[in-house]
Design goal:
Layout: H1 5-22, H2 24-37, E1 58-60, E2 66-68, E3 77-82, H3 87-103, E4 108-113, H4 117-127, E5 133-136, E6 151-155, E7 161-166, H5 174-185
Parallel strand pairs: 3-4, 4-5
Antiparallel strand pairs: 1-2, 1-5, 3-6, 6-7
Length: about 190
Amino acid sequence: MKLGKKQWTNIVLIIGIVLILFTPVGFYARVFVSRLLSASALVLKTELQLNVGSYDWELVDANGHTFNFEEAEGKVGFVNFWATWCPPCVAEMPSLQSLYNDYGDKVVFIFVAQDKVEKVSSFLDKRGYDLPVYYSKTEAPSLLTAKSIPTTYIIDTEGKIIVAQTGAADWNSEKVRKVLDGLLAQ
């Protein structure tokens, strides 16, 4: 039996769908597309900049060291909820690492992983990331609860949420850097 052009097209389409849905190729394709589509995060309008309120939130790192979010009070904070299995999270990681490299000593960065410690450690090591990753020990303040990931918040020194971004973003953009520089100058 000889296959026609339409049958070959259908076979190629089915193979493509199988690759995207059931193999790692699909994961990396979604990461690539997320990277292409990510733009700079937007600053919330003043009337939408709510105060975090309580800083009562305990986190723990991969080595078991506790970090209390209260240590970020009065400082510029950057909180990112993410997971290794999330293509948009993986897509924004290079820009987050670049931003952390330049602002890590001025801004309190908190990367909250939604994954197992071993998987996150392996992911970070494999890619050469040295981000300060934590796991929630207690519940996050209600205004910092992420219903989907990635979700990222930038908080000013008064505790107001200046940026609340859901989905991948280019965190190493000039716009984000200007926001952080402005907050640090206050």
